[in-house]
Amino acid sequence: MKKVLLTIPVLLTACFGFAQAPCSDLFFSEYIEGSSQNKALEVYNPTSNVINLSNYHIYRYLNGGTAVNDTLVMAGFLAPGATYNIVNPDTVSPPNAALLAVEDTLHTVTFFNGDDALALFNGTTMIDIIGDVGGADPGAEWAVDTGSTKENTLVRKANIFVGTTNWVTGATQWDVYGQNDFSHYGSHTMNACSGAGINDEPSFEVTLYPNPTTGPLTFTTDNIDYSLQIFDLTGKVVMSKTHLSKNTQIDMSGLSNGIYMVKLNQGGNQLTRKIILRK
Questions:
Q1: CA distances from residue 116 to 26, 225, 248 in whole angstroms, order as listed
Q2: Cβ neighbours of 55 (radius 10 Å)
Q3: Distance between CA atoms of 219 and 277, rounded to whole angstroms?
Q4: Which of 1, 132, 164, 218 falls between 20 and 30 A from 13, CA-CA?
Q5: What DSSP element (H or E) covers 226?
Q6: Are 240 and 143 within one domain?
Q7: How many DSSP H helices and E strands does the chain contain?
Q8: CATH number of the domain bearing residue 50
Q9: Distance (Å, rounded) from C-alpha 221 to C-alpha 167?
Q10: How far apart are CA 177 and CA 179, in angstroms?
Q11: Does residue 272 surpass a pLDDT of 90?
């Protein structure tokens, strides 16, 4: 029997800044870059609902580039106020027991160093980052509050209620603890949910469609004078546009079928989205 594929255009709304409402979706709550392979991530559910994790995944980007080096597809369900704990499968002793005692999964997405960026996605929408995805190579680390992403434990501040895709903002949202401090891992403390303490950056709303695309890709926004770059999964820039208008269409039909990352920029606010080209 011949199979017929029906492609339904999907409208994807993306926002620069804090387009998400407080406590409306998951975010990174802890990052551990310990000695040797003692590394871990923690994702927190600030909502009042049990979250089905099957739609969430985490990407790791080498040196903060755009090439995805590893992907964790999350699984299971996460209760309100609970954490999902991801531990390096090669964690060693000491002090691996503190990490392994509360792990939900062992995965190589934790094979990061201080200069590798991480992104949390809900479907095709990036909802939180650690490090600057698609930015300049930071060298050994990104500065964070009183420390950095290298050889430290980072815990999200209690007054943060939502993820960010702008690392200029994200770098200010963490408390820094010493290397191999695992005393906070496995749970997260957040203040009572409110709009207080949320950065009031102007949001930049963009609709991208269709996705998947056969070539034409339309960008619709109320803003003007923004730019975009499209990268393949090796990190190579395959298309670049500047000074774009409210309604812009580009043609990707000259590219090979596959997955691409489109990076949008306006006034320093950035957003990275996954685009599927299927001709």
A1: 21, 30, 32
A2: 13
A3: 15
A4: 132
A5: strand 226-231
A6: no
A7: 2, 22
A8: 2.60.40.1260
A9: 22
A10: 7
A11: no
Tokens at residue 114, please? 């201080």
**Residue 155 is assigned to a structural domain of this protein:** yes
- Is 61 a domain residue? yes
Q: What is the DSSP string of 125-140?
A: EEEEEES-TTS---TT
* 137 & 214 share domain: no
111-119 mean pLDDT: 94
Residues 226 and 139 in one domain: no
Output the six-digit token pair for 196: 């207080």
CB 187 within 8 A of CB 181: no
**Residue 8, in any domain of the structure:** no
- The CATH number linked to 257 is 2.60.40.3080
- Identify whether residues 141 and 245 lie together within a single domain: no
User: What spatial distance separates the first Cα and last Cα of the chain, rounded to whole Å?
Assistant: 22
pLDDT digits (tens, 9 = 90+) for 64-84: 888 899 999 999 999 888 899
My answer on whether 36 and 132 are in the same domain is yes
Note whether 28 and 101 are within 8 A (CB).
no
- Report which secondary-structure segment, H or E, holds 100: helix 96-100
- How many structural domains are present in the chain? 2
Q: What pLDDT, on the 0 to 100 scale, is given for residue 197? A: 39
What's the predicted TM-score (pTM) here?
0.70
**Confidence at 55, pLDDT banded by 50, 70, 90:** very high
- Contact in structure between 87 and 110 (CB atoms under 8 Å): yes
Q: Domain containing 227: what range?
A: 202-277
Q: Give the chain's mean pLDDT.
A: 84
Instruction: Judge whether 11 lies within some domain.
Output: no
Q: Please write the tens of the pLDDT for every residue from 77-105.
A: 998 888 999 999 988 765 578 898 889 99
235 DSSP 8-state letter: S
